[in-house]
Structures are given as structure tokens and as C-alpha cells.
């Protein structure tokens, strides 16, 4: 399909820009090429006002101007289709151009021009299309964003992308710096570990040397020292006892007579039997007994006591010296340990000091990085503010230029409106002139025909002939014959068709006279023929009774279930006529509900997308979701689903669906309150459907019965038709001139 359209556009029409299936959506997004296609077929007279720019204002201008042409051709085209083409959705432009291709080929085959198509269209349809065109333009303006917003969004996106790039760049720089810092820290840590290993190795070597140089002096324990002292005492006593024994032996040899032999022999036996220690003790007890008469013994005893004291003093001195040496050794060991501990603490403090210096260096570097980052952020902020101010200045210039363009466009529209108003006034004058000319021609025809017959018949014209002339005059037909109907062809021409219509009119009028025995069928007064009676009530009652039995009348539809309201009305008028303003003041002063069709459609679509449900409740108003009592989709959501389905197909919402939305909204208004509709109904069909929905009766069928027979009339028919109750209490039409509408629209555009 794309190849066919491309061949049609490039080869047959030869538009200004060659199109390709790959760039189809992008080429037709602005609407300029579509307008060129319509201009090539002489359907778009204002093509010189189209713009090739891709700006939002240009697109809105192009698609607003094309919509009446599409409506004239009968191609489905609304704001959703325009939005899809402008947003370059896949297949939207292809579908529209294919439909346009088919319609234009048909028009080409039939040989119709744009003016012929416009003339062939009914006036009511043209008026409805003008209303739909206004709605289409308003909704398209709301759907298409302003070019200022798009430019501002692009600027914001550009700044956001730049900020993201700068953040990523800063993050990469920070990551590189952190990686370098970690690498340096790792190298320093490895160096510290190596230095610590070397220091420990040196420390172990020094400790090994110190251990090798230290003389290990075992500390004497208390038990070993006492045993040694006791052993030395016992050996000393034994030696002293032996010395004493030797001296005594020498003394006895020289003095045998002075001491008895029995005591000496007993001493020897005791020494041999009990050992050296016992001998010593016995000698001290037996030999050293004090003897007052023996001076020598006292001297020996004294000398022994002195020796014992001297030995004790020597032992004390020796022990004192040993204790002093032990204390000195312990003090030396303690000093060495303190020196080692001080050296270790000094090494640890140096390492801690080195780590503290490194931490201070890292903190300083971190502070420098932070200051650099703050400085860069300030520079970026200043640059962003500068670029944002430049963007605002550009937007202000563009807005000023757009304002000037809008003023120029408004001026052109005013000129075009004045031209159209003059053309409409001229068309009304021509129409009035043609009608008056036809009436004058009919009068002249009647007068000339009458004058001719008066001359021919001596001022005598048959009564029946005069009646026929009057009937033709009142019906607007020419009295003179324009064509012969004696030998009619299979396809009669226009004049022959007019003559046939005139003949049918005269035949019908003659039949009515025949039934009523009037005119030429009127019997003379002296004859016995009587006129037929006007009506036979008995016969009419019987006939219509039988007809009701054979073909009964369908019962009337029951009225809708809508409770009563205090007031019901609508406000109608052109665009910018002040309908919304009046309703705003009315709602402020009175408690009246305003019903807007656009709001109802939006709420229905939102209810469909939100899956709005109706919650069924029991006697105590508790929610239940059991089988048979499950929640159901609300009626508004169901109507919203139908609306979305129609809009998805590119169709407009039907009048029946709009009436269902209105009835559903009226049922939610509390009883006794009033409501006013904003700019609804807009067409006669909508008014009929609304009246039928509010009253339950069709206004065209009320008081009318099917015409069953012409013999007699129904005696039950009332002379006065039934009174039809209105569906609305009032309907206000705010009628203003087109110039005022255009002026208000221009003021609103200038404010925007």
C-alpha cells in the first residue's frame, strides 16, 4: 500500500518533496504535503497560508485548515487522527492518504470539482460540519502543546543531559582520584609492612644478642637456701667437734690424771654409735658443762661462743651481699625491660605519627577536592543560569514574534471574515432577488394567460381552468407548458418531469373535487342529486373498530425512570457568546447543577480506565463478593467503554450514546435540585432524542394516528390535538454577531 501511495505522489502528482516509505510518517507530520495534495486537486484554496515548519503552531495551522476539506470529501478525520499524524505514529499517515487516494480517484472518475461537491451537500450538513470544525479546532488546540512549551522542554532536556554528563564525568574523576588514593595507600601500607618486618627482624636479632650476652643467674629459692645453711652449719659443727676432739685428745695425753676414764670411753662409744652430729651435741652438753673450778673450760666455752657469734655475723654479711647482688640483678633486668618497652613504644608512636601525617594529608587532599568541586558547581550553576536566561530571552523574542504573527493572522482573518460576510450578504440578496423574480414571473404569467383567454373568449374564462391556474400559481409552477408529454422517452428530461408533476397536482386536486362534488362536479340546483354527507359516525366507528382489532395500535413506550427536578433548561449559543460565564454566575447564586457534555465524556472514559464498579450490599450495607453477589462494572464505565471503542476507530460519538451519558448523569442528581445544560443540544436530532429521553414520547408521533382509510373519519378523534408536555422548562439562546465572536476570539488569543 505504501508503494502505491508513493508512486501516486511521486509520479502522478509530483509533489515538491519526493517521499519514501521509510520516512513516510516524518514527511507528512507537518501536514504541508497533505495540503499540497489537496491543492493539486483544486480542493485547498488557502494553500499559500500553509507552513513547512515543524513547529507546533505551523502544524496546528495546517491541520486546522485541512479539516473542512476532509469533511467535504467524506474522509474520516478528527483531532485524534491529526494528533497521531503529528506525533508520527506508525501507519497513521499511510491510512489517511490511502483513504484520500480512493476518494480522489472516485472524484476524478465522476468529474466533480470542489465547488460541485460543496453545492451538492445539504445546508444542514454544512452547518453541522461548521460546528464540528469549531469543536475540532478547540480540541486540537488543547491536544497540541505550544511551541514555547516544546522549546522549553527541549532546553530543559538539553540541560538535564548536560548535567548528567557532568555528573558522570565528575563521578569518573572522583573514581579515578579515589583509585589513585587507594593505590597510594596500598603502596604506603606495603612499605609500612616491609619496614615493620625489617624492624621486627632487627629487634629479634638485638634480643637474641642480648639473651646471648646475659649471664643466667638462677634465683635461689627459700627452701634451697635454708637447707644449704643447715648443711653448712652441720658440717661446721662437725669440723669444730673434730677439732675439739683432737685438742681434747692432746690435752688428755698430757693430763691423764685430771679427767676420769669412764667418761671418755662413754663419749667414744656415743660418737661411734650415733654419728658426728650426736657426738657434737653430746660434747657440747657433757664436755662444755660449766665448772666453776675450771677456768680453762670457761675459756674454751667463751671462745666457742665467740666463734659461733662470728660465724653468724659472717653468715649475715654473706647473705646480705647475696641479697644486694640479687636486687642489683633484678634492677638491671627491670631497666632492660623498661628500655625495651620504651623502644617498642617509641616505634609504635612513630608509626602512629606517620599514620596521623598520612591522614592529615588525605584530609587536606579531600578538602582541596571538595573546594574544587564547589568551585566547579558554582561555575556550572552560573553557566546554567546564563544559558537559561539566554533561553528565556530567546523565548521572549519568539513569543513577541509569535504575537506579531498572531496579530497579522488575526488581521487577515478579519479581512477574510469581512469578505465572507459580504459574500453571504450578496448570496442572500441574490436568493431574495431570485425568489422575487420567480414570484413576479409567476404573476406576469398568470396575468398574460388571463389576458390572452379574455381576448379569445370575450372576457369569459372557465371556472375550472381558472382554478387550475391558481393551483399552479400557488404551487410555484409555470402556467405555460415547457415540454411535451405526449410521447415520453425512457429517460425524460427536466422540463418533461416538471410537466408530469404539474399534471399529478391537477389530477389530485380534481380527485378531491370529485369526492367532495365541488367545482365542475357540483350538481345543478334543480337536479335531484344530493351531495355526500360529511361523515357517518356509526360507519366510521365500526370501520375503525374493525381496523383496531385487525391491526392493533402499538402501546406507547413507558416514560423513563427519571425523578422530578426543580428546574430543567439549557443555554445555547455560538462560541464565545458567554454561556460558561452565565452558568458560573448562576451556580454561584443558586444551587444548580451544570451538565457539560465534554466533562461527561471525560468522566466516562476515566471510569472505564479506572474499572469503576458498583458495590452491592446486603441488609446491613456490608460489601459482599460471593457468587451471585459480585461487584459489577458501573453503567458509566460501560458507556465509557463504548466511547473509547468509537474514538479508537476514529469515529465521532453518536447522539444516542451522548443521550445515555446525559440520562446517567441526571439520575445521579438529587431529587428536587435543578440542572442546566451547557451548549446542548446542538442539532435537531439531539433535541428530539433528549425530548424522548426526558418525556418518553416522540414529538413527531404524538397526536398522529396511521391513516387507515379515506372513506370515513374516526369519530373518536379529538378536534384538538393533545397537549405535549415539554422536556425542558426553558431554553436560552445567546445570539451575538459573528464580528463580536471574532473580536472575543482575537482578544483571547492575544491574552494567550
Structural commentary:
There is one protein chain. With 752 residues, this protein is mostly helical. Among the domains are: 2-144, Actin-binding Protein, T-fimbrin, domain 1, CATH 1.10.418; 462-521, no CATH class; 568-737, Rossmann fold, CATH 3.40.50. It has helices at 2-13, 24-27, 32-40, 56-73, 79-86, 92-110, 114-120, 123-143, 147-213, 222-254, 261-274, 276-287, 295-457, 463-475, 494-516, 537-550, 579-589, 597-609, 635-648, 655-667, 684-695, 738-751, and strands at residues 568-573, 592-596, 613-614, 632-633, 674-678, 730-734. The chain has a four-stranded parallel beta sheet, sandwiched between helices. A two-stranded antiparallel sheet has the order 3-4. Helix 4 (56-73) packs antiparallel against helix 8 and helix 9 runs antiparallel to helix 13. It is elongated and about 235 Å long. The model is unreliable at 215-223, 258-293 and 617-630 (pLDDT under 50).
Amino acid at each position: 500500500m505504501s508503494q502505491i501511495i508513493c508512486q501516486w505522489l511521486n509520479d502522478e502528482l509530483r509533489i515538491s518533496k519526493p517521499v519514501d516509505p521509510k520516512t513516510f510518517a516524518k514527511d507528512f507530520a507537518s501536514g504541508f504535503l497533505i495540503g499540497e495534495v489537496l491543492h493539486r486537486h483544486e480542493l485547498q484554496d488557502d494553500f499559500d497560508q500553509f507552513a513547512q515548519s515543524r513547529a507546533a503552531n505551523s502544524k496546528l495551522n495546517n491541520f486546522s485548515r485541512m479539516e473542512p476539506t476532509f469533511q467535504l470529501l467524506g474522509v474520516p478525520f478528527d483531532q485524534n487522527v491529526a494528533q497521531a499524524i503529528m506525533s508520527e505514529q506508525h501507519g497513521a499517515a499511510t491510512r489517511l492518504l490511502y483513504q484520500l487516494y480512493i476518494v480522489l480517484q472516485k472524484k476524478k472518475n465522476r468529474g466533480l470539482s470542489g465547488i460541485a461537491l460543496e453545492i451538492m451537500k445539504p445546508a444542514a450538513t454544512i452547518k453541522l460540519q461548521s460546528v464540528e470544525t469549531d469543536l475540532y479546532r478547540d480540541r486540537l488546540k488543547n491536544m497540541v502543546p505550544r511551541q514555547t512549551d516544546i522549546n522549553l522542554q527541549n532546553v530543559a532536556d538539553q540541560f538535564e543531559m548536560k548535567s548528567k554528563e557532568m555528573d558522570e564525568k565528575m563521578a569518573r574523576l572522583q573514581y579515578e582520584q579515589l583509585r589513585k588514593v587507594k593505590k597510594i595507600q596500598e603502596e604506603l601500607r606495603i612499605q609500612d609492612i616491609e619496614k615493620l618486618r625489617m624492624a621486627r627482624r632487627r629487634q629479634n636479632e638485638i634480643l637474641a644478642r642480648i639473651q646471648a650476652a646475659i649471664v643466667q643467674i638462677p634465683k635461689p629459692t627459700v627452701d634451697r637456701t635454708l637447707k644449704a645453711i643447715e648443711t653448712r652449719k652441720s658440717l661446721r659443727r662437725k669440723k669444730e667437734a673434730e677439732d675439739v676432739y683432737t685438742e681434747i685428745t692432746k690435752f688428755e695425753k698430757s693430763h691423764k690424771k685430771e679427767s676420769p676414764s669412764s667418761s671418755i670411753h662413754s663419749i667414744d662409744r656415743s660418737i661411734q654409735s650415733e654419728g658426728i652430729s650426736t657426738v657434737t651435741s653430746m660434747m657440747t652438753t657433757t664436755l662444755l658443762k660449766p665448772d666453776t673450778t675450771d677456768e680453762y673450760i670457761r675459756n674454751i666455752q667463751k671462745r666457742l661462743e665467740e666463734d659461733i657469734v662470728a660465724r653468724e655475723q659472717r653468715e649475715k654479711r654473706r647473705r646480705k651481699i647475696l641479697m644486694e647482688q640479687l636486687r642489683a640483678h633484678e634492677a638491671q633486668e627491670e631497666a632492660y625491660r623498661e628500655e625495651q618497652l620504651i623502644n617498642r613504644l617509641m616505634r609504635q608512636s612513630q608509626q602512629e605519627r606517620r599514620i596521623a601525617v598520612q591522614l592529615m594529608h588525605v584530609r587536606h587532599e579531600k578538602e582541596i577536592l571538595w573546594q574544587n568541586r564547589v568551585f566547579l558547581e558554582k561555575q556550572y550553576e552560573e553557566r546554567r543560569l546564563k544559558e537559561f536566561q539566554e533561553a528565556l530571552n530567546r523565548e521572549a523574542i519568539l513569543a513577541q514574534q509569535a504575537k506579531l504573527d498572531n496579530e497579522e493572522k488575526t488581521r487577515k482573518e478579519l479581512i477574510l471574515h469581512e469578505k465572507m460576510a459580504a459574500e453571504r450578504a450578496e448570496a442572500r440578496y441574490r436568493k431574495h432577488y431570485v425568489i422575487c423574480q420567480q414570484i413576479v414571473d409567476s404573476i406576469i404569467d398568470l396575468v398574460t394567460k388571463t389576458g390572452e383567454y379574455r381576448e379569445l373568449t370575450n372576457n369569459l374564462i372557465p371556472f375550472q381552468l381558472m382554478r387550475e391556474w391558481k393551483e399552479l400559481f400557488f404551487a410555484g409552477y409555470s402556467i405555460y407548458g415547457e415540454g411535451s408529454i405526449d410521447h415520453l422517452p425512457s429517460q425524460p428530461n427536466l422540463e418533461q418531469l416538471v410537466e408530469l408533476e404539474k399534471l399529478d397536482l391537477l389530477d389530485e386536486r380534481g380527485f378531491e373535487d370529485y369526492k367532495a362534488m365541488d367545482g365542475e362536479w357540483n350538481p345543478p340546483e334543480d337536479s335531484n342529486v344530493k351531495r355526500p354527507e360529511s361523515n357517518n359516525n356509526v360507519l366510521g366507528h365500526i370501520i375503525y373498530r374493525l381496523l383496531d382489532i385487525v391491526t392493533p395500535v402499538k402501546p406507547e413506550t413507558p416514560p423513563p425512570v427519571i425523578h422530578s427536578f426543580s428546574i430543567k433548561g439549557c443555554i445555547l449559543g455560538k462560541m464565545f457568546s458567554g454561556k460558561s460565564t452565565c452558568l458560573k454566575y448562576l451556580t454561584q447564586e443558586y444551587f444548580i447543577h451544570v451538565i457539560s457534555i465534554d466533562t461527561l465524556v471525560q468522566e466516562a472514559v476515566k471510569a472505564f480506565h479506572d474499572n469503576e464498579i458498583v458495590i452491592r450490599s446486603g441488609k446491613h450495607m456490608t460489601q459482599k463478593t460471593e457468587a451471585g453477589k459480585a461487584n459489577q462494572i458501573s453503567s458509566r464505565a460501560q458507556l465509557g467503554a463504548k466511547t473509547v471503542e468509537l474514538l479508537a476507530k476514529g469515529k465521532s460519538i453518536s447522539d444516542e450514546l451522548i443521550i445515555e451519558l446525559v440520562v446517567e448523569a441526571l439520575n445521579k442528581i438529587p431529587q428536587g435540585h435543578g440542572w442546566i445544560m451547557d451548549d446542548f443540544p446542538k442539532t435537531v436530532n439531539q433535541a428530539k432524542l433528549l425530548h424522548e429521553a426526558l418525556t418518553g414520547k416522540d414529538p413527531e408521533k404524538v397526536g398522529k394516528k396511521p391513516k387507515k382509510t379515506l372513506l370515513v373519519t374516526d369519530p373518536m378523534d379529538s378536534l384538538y390535538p393533545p397537549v405535549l408536555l415539554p422536556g425542558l422548562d426553558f431554553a436560552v439562546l445567546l445570539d451575538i454577531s459573528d464580528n463580536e465572536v471574532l473580536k472575543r476570539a482575537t482578544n483571547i488569543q492575544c491574552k494567550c
